[in-house]
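Reply to dn_fold:

You asked what the input looked like. This is it:
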Amino acid sequence: MEWMYLGMVIFLFILAAFDLWVGVSNDAVNFLNSAIGSRAAKFRSLVFIAGTGVFCGCVLSNGMMDIARHGIFTPQYFSFEDVMYIYLAVMVTDIVLLDIFNSFGMPTSTTVSMVFELLGAAFAFTMLKMAGGDGTLLMGDYLNTSKALEVILGIFLSVPIAFVFGSLIQYITRIIFSFSITKNLRFKIGIFGGVAITAILYFMLFKGLKDLSFMNADVKAFLNEHILAILGMTFVIATIVMQILHVFKVNVFRVIVLIGTFALATAFAGNDLVNFIGVPLAGFSAYTDFSANAAGASPDSFMMTSLGSSAHTPVYFLVAAGAIMVFALATSKKARKVTETEVGLSRKNEGDEMFGSSKVARSLVRWGNSIGNAVANVTPPSVARYIDRRFQVPAEAVDNQAAYDMCRASVNLVVSSLLIALGTSLKLPLSTTFVTFMVAMGSSLADRAWGRETAVFRITGVLTVIGGWFITAGVAFTACFLVAMAMNFGGVVAVVIIVAAGIYSIIHSQQRFARKQKEVTEGDVLFQQMISTTDHTAIVPMLSRHIGMSTADMLHKYAEALTTSTDGLFAEQLRPMRTALRRLAKIKRELKSLRRRETICLRRVEPPVSAVRLSTNFHLIHNSLRQMLYGIIRIAEPAHEHVDNNFSPVDAIMAERFCKLRNEVTNLMLVVADNLRNQRGGDNDALVPQCNKLEAEACAYNEYVGVAMQTEGYNLNSLTLMLHLGQEMQQIMVELRQMIESGKAYREMTNIKA
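and this is what came back:
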C-alpha cells in the first residue's frame, strides 16, 4: 500500500503548484496595488520588480514550515494515514477556496485559510479519536486552538489599527505636500524620503528578512542590539540621497513606491511561502519518515512524532516555488482582477462603482457626515480654509489614468510596512493582507477620494471584503472538516474522487473566467477609454457608440424578460416568472449604473457647451429606457402574483391575441437594438410608424378586453390583469417611439450619421 501514499505525496505537490498559482493571484494585491494605482511604472516593470522580490524571498527563505508540521495539531497523537488525509483535505480545500475568492476579485488572507483548514481537518480526526479512545487525552492535547484564536485576534486588530493609522498619516502628509507634489518641496521631500526608506528597511529587517537563511542567531542579536544606530544611520543616508535625487529632478515618491513594492513582495514570499508549500512539504516529510522507519508497521498505527521537530526545506523546492510564483504573477489575469478591486475602492476619480449600496453603509455615511459637520462647526474658519486649499487638486496634477497620486501610494506602502513590522516585533498577529487593504482604504478616505456620491458604494465594498475575511475562516474550517471526514470514511476511492474534483474545479474555473473575460463588452472597453483619454474632443463619438451598444443590450434584455414572464403566466409556471423578476431587479441596478457611467463621460466632453447641448436628449433616452423597464416590471409582478395565488388561468383566445401583440413588440425592440448595435441608428427613424401601429393595436386589444369585462362568463381577475398588461404594452410603445426620436435628435446634434 506504500505506493498509494507515494501517489498522495505526488498529488500534494501537484496541488501545491495550483496553490502557488492561486495564492499569488490573491496576494498580489498586497504588494502591487499601490504601484498600479499610482502608475509608478509600466505594468511590465512593476511585475519585474515584484517578481524579483518574490523570487528573492522564496530562494533566501530558510523554509521553516512549522505551522503545517505541528503549529495546529500535536503530530505524535496522529498516525501517518491521519496526517496524509489531513494534508490532502487542506490542499484541495485551499486551492478551491482561494480560487473562488480570486474569481470574484476579493482579496483574502492565505494565512487565515490555511490555519482554519488545518484546524478543520485536524478537528475531524480529533473527534474520531476521542470517540474511539480511552478518554485519557482531551481536545487540547490534540489541537493547538490558540493559533486559531491568534489569527482571529489578528483580524480584529488589523482592521481598525490599519484603517486609523492609514487615515491619520495620509491626512497629515497631504496637508504637508498638498497635491502639488512636484513643486515647493525644498528639504521636506528629502526628510520624507529618509523616513520612508528607513521605515521600509525596518520592515524588511523585522518582517521580510527575519526568517531568511542568512539571518542566524548572531545576526539577529547584532541587529537587536544596534537597531537604533542602524536606523539612525539609514535615515541620515537616505535623507541625503533622496534630497540629491530631487535636485536632479528624480521623482522621490516614485523611488519610494518602487522600493516599497520590492520590499513587500520579498516579505510576502519569505513569510507566506509556508501557506502554499508548507503542507505538501510536511506530507513529503511524513512519507519519508514512514518509509525509512516503519518496517512492518501499519500506516494507521505509525505515529508522526517526527513532525514535532523543525525541518529545513531543500533549496530546489524553494527555487521551483519561486519560479511558479513569478510566472503566475506575470500571467495570472485573476491577480489583476483582485488588484482592481482594491484600486477601484480607493481611486480618486469617478468611474464605475464595483459595489452597490447597503443599509449599513448608508448609516455609516450619515454618521460620518454628522461628525464632519460637528468638527467643521468648531474649526476656526482660517484653519478650515487653509486645509481646504491643501486638498484642492490643481489642473496640472490631474492624471486620469492613475487612481491616485504617488504621494498616497508612498503612504500606503510606508504605513503598511511600519505596522506589519511593529506588529511582528510586539508579537501581534497582524495579517499582511488585512493591513495593506485597510491602510489603502483609510488613506483614500483621508484623501477625500470618497465623495458623497461614491462613499456609500466604497463603504459597501470595504464591508463586503471584511465580511469575506470572516467567511473565509468559517468556510475553510467547515469545508475541510467535511472533506477530511469523507476521506476517512471513503478511503482511497474518496481520496481519488475529491482530489480529481478539486483539480477539475480549478481548471473549469480558469476556463469559465477566461470566457467571462472574453465576454467583456465593447462598451466596457469604450468606457475605460473615455475615462482615461486626454483628448476630450474624441469622447463624443465614443460616447455615441457606447450609448448605442448599451441601449441595444438593454432592449435585448427587456424583450427576453417580457417574453419569459408572460409565457410563465399563460403556462401557469412560477419558476420562469421568478427568474424574470430576479433578472429585472438586476437590470434595474445595471441601468442605474449605466446612466451614471455615461453621465460621467458626458461631463468630460469638451467644449462644455457641447455636453450641455447633448444632455437633454441623452437623459430623454435614459428616461425612456427606465420607463420601459418599469412597464415590464409592472407586467411581471402582477402576473407572478396571479399565478402564485392560483387564480383562474387566462382565457386561451385572449392569451393568444396578447402573445401576438407581445411578439410584434419584442420583435420591434430587437430590430431597434440590432440597428443600434451595428451603427445603423438612422434606420430606426423609419420604425416610428410601426411604433404608432403597435400602439394602436394595443389600444384595440384593451378595448377588446374592456368589452369582455362587460360580458358574463369571463373571469374578472383574469380580465383585470389582461387589461393592465395591455395598457402597459401600449405605454411601452409610447416610450420606445420617444426613445427613437430622442436618439435621432442626439445624432443630429453630434453630426453623426450612424
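Residues 2-518 form one domain.
Hope that clears it up.
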